[in-house]
Amino acid sequence: MDLGMVGLGKMGSRMTQRLLGAGHQVFVFDRNKVAIQEAEVHGAVGAESLQDLVAKMETPRAIWIMVPAGDPTENTVSELASMMSASDVIIDGGNSNYKDSQRRAEKLQENGIDLLDCGTSGGLWGLKQGYSLMIGGKDSAIKMLTPIFESLAPAVDKGWGHVGPSGAGHFVKMIHNGIEYGMMQAYAEGFEIMKAKTALDLDLHQIAEIWRFGSVVRSWLLDLTASALEDDQDLSSIRAWVADSGEGRWTVAEAIDLDIPAPVITLSLLMRLISRQDDAFAAKMLAAMRNQFGGHAMKKQDD
Length: 303
Fold this sequence. Notes:
By secondary structure, the chain is of the alpha/beta class. 51% of the residues lie in helices and 12% in strands. The chain has an 8-stranded mixed sheet with strand order 3-2-1-4-5-6-7-8, sandwiched between helices.
């Protein structure tokens, strides 16, 4: 089945290449004309606009969007829907809030258009290893697109599945990312403790490589950790500033709504926020209070 791809960032471009390699015809559009040209080199059919993309495709159309969550996704879905027909499908493979996906799916159904929310994991490595796909939406639309999902996944019967109704795919991906926050934080803290134990002169890269095989803490994240430590164990070229995509925040908010304690995920999110404070006022307040009640030492700016 032909597929349209909107959004040729790092993930979208690699997904397009994987689909083309599996023999699918892919029509592509991105605001960046260079990205379109690069996709055409691999065999994609470029489009000059969303309207041109829709016009080039035969019905029933399936258009996969890989654009940032929020307004970019909202505007893209709305514009596509105004041009598409009943029985067409839009797949949102980005990190949209699942409540937005539920709302959009209900709205599109008024015109007979299906929306599949597809939580997509695999990052830069998905082109080679395949993507993990968590899909929400109507069973009939998913069955129609099964060859697409099988081509993107690590295997036809592994790494992808229909997890529930509209919104379920993005909900599961949200929890997936929340778990990822906690796992990454645990690795980061453990390696920092080992780095601080200077008396033992530990080789962090060596330890990461040892743990990668046979250990109960082995994982793909540990593989990536070992790779990051290989050339520079001090990570001297990296600033201690960690972004968050928003899914960790949504996971914590959902846990609160459901009265579910999630201390690990919550604290891992807070640690990312702390990383952005070069000169945290709260830390200054703590030092000042300790000095006031106990005469504990404080470090001044020029110390």
